[in-house]
Amino acid sequence: MKTVAHPGPVASERLQLIPCAGQVFEARLPAGAPLDQAVADAFADAGAQSGWISFENAPVSALDYVIPAGPRDESTVAWYSETYSFPGQGRIERLGGVVGQNDGAPLLHGHGVWTPESGAAAMGHILPGATILAAPVVARCVGVTGARFERLFDPETNFTLFQPVADIASAAMDAQAANCALLRLAPNIDFSASLSAACARLGWPAARIHGLGSLVEARFDNGVRLNSPASEFLVLDAETRADGAAAAPQIAIVGVEHGRIVQGALTSGENAVLITAELVLERL
What we know:
- With 284 residues, the chain is mainly beta.
- It has two helices and 22 strands.
């Protein structure tokens, strides 16, 4: 399994995991508003502090995004590309996003696949403040209380990124009383094995996984490889078991090559987290 050396000290905790209370709900995101505001309003209306949102087949009148890129200097192992913008209308084929906070304000971190009105499909990191839905869309959400994703500085990677934080009143919530959990995976640990380890730590037999992140290249069960020094992925379908017996996670991933999207089941033991993975676990 290929790993990378980050600029900062290696943190002792590799699985940042907080059990919490969760609810599954549907949200109708309106047309005409910036996507980040529409999502923030939906979660506020549901009384959820943080969580996960996903939807498919959504027409847009504007969409901006970036893809992974090599580092600008030695301060980080990767960075972001220039901003790509749709020349007109298009469609979000699939989007998943972590809903959290940045200095007390709502923040959406989303990865997805989209297609401009005239052009090929692409994948990347959406810029939700510059993305406008052209028609309402119904999204599936997992909202949580008792914990949240908060944008915090990570000395190891030298990035400011989402990390799970417990509310003071809920800091001692027992995992057996929780039906959800927030999980952040640190760099250089295998993605699939870490999901099983988190489930075992919670004492849950199994969990459904929602999330996104980055990998050091990518290896798939069908032999396909993404040999990119930086990548961003979206979980398409994944469950994990404490005994490690679950099927391999299905993801979509993009690297530094604009327009090349790889999808499939990850090979266990061969896919190290590059910078982070931000995940919401639903107890099964």
